[in-house]
Every structure is written in C-alpha cells, then in structure tokens.
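Sharing in case it's useful to others searching the archive later.

Someone asked me privately for the predicted structure of DUF1697 domain-containing protein, so I'm posting the question and my answer publicly. Question first, with the sequence:
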Amino acid sequence: MSTMYAALLRGINVSGHRRVPMAELRTLLGELGHEAVATYLQSGNAVFRSASGDEGALAAGLERAIEKRFGFPVDCLVRSGAYLAGVAEACPFPAAELEGKQVHVTYFDKAVDAARFASLDADAYRPEEFRLGDRALYLYAPDGLGRSKLAVALGRPALNRGLVATSRNWNTVVKLVEMTRD
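And my answer, the predicted structure tokens:
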C-alpha cells in the first residue's frame, strides 16, 4: 500500500537564492522512485506517492538528493496527507472566515512543548496570536506575515534552536491537503 505525502522544503527560491526549479524537483522525486509527483508554487511544496511509511527516511533521502543535484543543503519535512488534514482540521482559528494570508502554520520536525515559548509575552503582540499543535504552530496575523511582530519574535533563533521549521500560509495548507488526499 502506498501513501500520499507532501515534501516541505525550507528556504528555497527566495530572492533568487538557493534555486530549486520545480520541474527539476519533480524529476528528482521521480528518480527517487516516487509516483504521482506534483509541485505547488515555487516555494518548495511537492507531493508524491510512496510505499515507504517512514517520513524521516523520505525526508533524509530527499535532502541528500537535493544537495547532490543542486550543491547546497536544504532542510525538508515530509508529512502524510492524513497528518496535513489533521493539522488543518485542528486549526484553533476560524481560518475559513479569514484571508489565507492571516493564518499560517509552521511545521516542525518534532514535537514542541509550550515551555519553549514561555519567555514570550504573547499578550504584548495582540491581536496577533499563536497556538501549538501536533508538530505545528498556528499563527494568526491579521495584517499578514510581512507585518507581523509576533512572527519575528517566534522566529528568533533562541526559540527555534534544534528545530527544523518551515511555514506555509493557510491557502497553501489547504491546497496541500487537497493534493495529498487519497
């Protein structure tokens, strides 16, 4: 039996740096033996079908292949369609009533507990808010990510030490759920 997955690549194709063309990413995923490969946008979102049940091994294999092909390392998270759907369903904010740019999900490579963010005075950033989920952080930023002071605070290296994290806006979250639906 095979599963649909999404690969979330971190920090590629930003301002012309660390370029990974999506056509080449699709080819690379096919060369790794994956099927039903597709990409979404230019920001490092790919979906594929694999018989493997090991998200960590799939991510590590893709990271090695990307570094070999493009000459630089790229952190990758691989998540099943079922996981992505669960994250979307668990959103603590009324995402369906908001613009896609107002809600973001940051996916982490491992579980994160609230103690990591205890030093952050969340009330100081209102009306912006964040909540933790299953290897995910939900951010409500009513003026968008580009103007979010809370996003800057959450992105501080001290809060993210030892984590691989990559964020997607709500439109992308929903699209990846659709693309990985079995």
